[in-house]
Specification:
Layout: H1 27-33, E1 49-56, E2 59-62, H2 67-76, E3 81-87, H3 91-101, H4 105-113, E4 119-123, E5 126-137, E6 142-152, E7 156-161, H5 169-176, H6 179-182, H7 186-220, H8 226-256, H9 265-345, H10 360-381
Parallel strand pairs: 3-7
Antiparallel strand pairs: 1-2, 1-3, 4-5, 5-6, 6-7
Helix pairs in contact: 3-4, 5-7, 7-8, 7-9, 8-9, 9-10
Length: about 375
């Protein structure tokens, strides 16, 4: 991690170019010039600067009115450091700030595109750091993520926020109240921002832990909406896991350069403390992911069990209906047999042998009874009655 001690005086950043010379336009800026800029994009870069100040020996020296003035002040104060914060700048405004601080085009392109993964990259004497913050919303029980870009140079820090959170006002106040820490230069700002982002994960972890406990209750209560909530919570946990792991990698990379860049021992201890907190967050979030996987598996098992019970109940109801239908069909057949006999002898034909027979009526009664009794015995043996 660079300390940039005993550095040469910073050259002025104002560059002159011959009128006939062809301008060396970076690819990102060339793509922006291919279309007509909107009114929002042609605003001056200062319109998105939320705070800018010059610091030296842990104290605020000046508050420049513009970035150009900031550069001139840096040239006048060899031991000073500038800290400029930008909020939701347009691509052109980022390019304007990059021209002032002479940032590398690749880092500028990443800052313009945004939606970057957390990372740390070195371009000459400037570090480009991308961080992902997290905030837990108690009302909606959801986690929202923010994105923050830092350009850490020999005598400046440029922070670019693409989202409402995190607000860095508290970080600036903390450093201004700790002159010893702020006197360490741009490294102290990077440390304070990393510490602020990692500390912001703690309420998120607590909120997620509470959500998981609620989900466990919903699972055993067979709440039909629990599957959707498990899925949403799993995505939030995975996003937080990626953010915390990447920050841990950033801290590991910074620690690897302690000796090379002669980082202050006190700042080394502070960064290791941040790494410990990031490790704790990562471990807990990993546990959340395994727990949610187990809950999802348990929920699938309970849903399958509930479906099996419902199917079993439907089968029992169907069997009961079949038994009832058997009984109804059996009695219908038994009652239908006498009706057939009575219907035959109820026909109005003159020539029927049994009509004038003295035992015709008793025989018909006995026949109906025998047929009905025989059907009853058959159905009874088959278990229909």
């Amino acid at each position: 991690m660079p300390t940039w001690k005993n550095r040469a005086p910073r050259p002025t950043r104002m560059m002159t170019r011959h009128p006939s010379a062809e301008p060396d336009i970076p690819p990102v800026e060339r793509s922006l010039q291919s279309r007509r800029p909107s009114d929002e994009e042609i605003r001056p870069v200062e319109s998105t600067v939320v705070e800018k100040a010059l610091y030296a020996h842990g104290k605020r020296l000046e508050t420049p009115h513009s970035l150009t003035e900031c550069i001139h002040m840096l040239a006048d104060h060899k031991e000073a450091m500038a800290w400029v914060g930008m909020y939701r700048p347009t691509p052109q405004q980022i390019q304007d700030a990059a021209d002032v601080f002479r940032l590398h085009p690749l880092a500028v392109e990443d800052a313009i595109v945004a939606h970057q993964r957390p990372k740390i990259e070195r371009y000459d004497d400037t570090l480009f750091v991308v961080l992902r913050s997290a905030i837990y919303n108690d009302e909606t029980e959801t986690v929202s993520f923010g994105e923050l870009h830092l350009f850490v140079g020999p005598d400046f820090v440029l922070t670019v926020r693409h989202t409402d959170r995190p607000h860095l006002a508290s970080v600036r106040t903390r450093l201004e109240n700790d002159s010893k820490l702020l006197a360490m230069g741009p490294e102290s700002v990077l440390y304070a921002v990393l510490d602020f982002v990692v500390d912001g994960y703690a309420p998120v972890v607590a909120g997620l832990e509470n959500d998981i406990e609620e989900i466990e209750t919903q699972v055993f209560e067979s709440d039909p909406s629990v599957s959707r909530r498990i899925y949403q919570l799993s995505r939030e946990v995975m996003e937080l896991q990626r953010a915390s792991r990447r920050i841990l990698q950033i801290l590991t990379a910074l620690e690897a350069g302690f000796d090379k860049y002669e980082t202050d021992p006190e700042l080394q201890r502070d960064l290791r403390d941040v790494a410990d907190h990031a490790t704790s967050v990562t471990d807990r979030v990993d546990g959340f992911r395994h727990t949610l996987a187990d809950i999802l598996s348990l929920n699938a098992t309970l849903v399958a069990q509930t479906q099996n019970e419902q199917m079993q109940h439907l089968a029992e109801v169907s069997n009961q209906q079949n038994e009832q239908m058997k009984k109804v069909s059996s009695w219908a057949a038994i009652l239908f047999a006498p009706t057939v006999v009575a219907g035959i002898y109820g026909m109005n034909f003159r020539i029927m042998p049994e009509l004038h027979w003295a035992f015709g009526y008793p025989m018909a009664i006995v026949l109906m009874f025998l047929v009905s009794f025989t059907l009853y015995r058959i159905f009874r043996q088959r278990g229909w009655l």
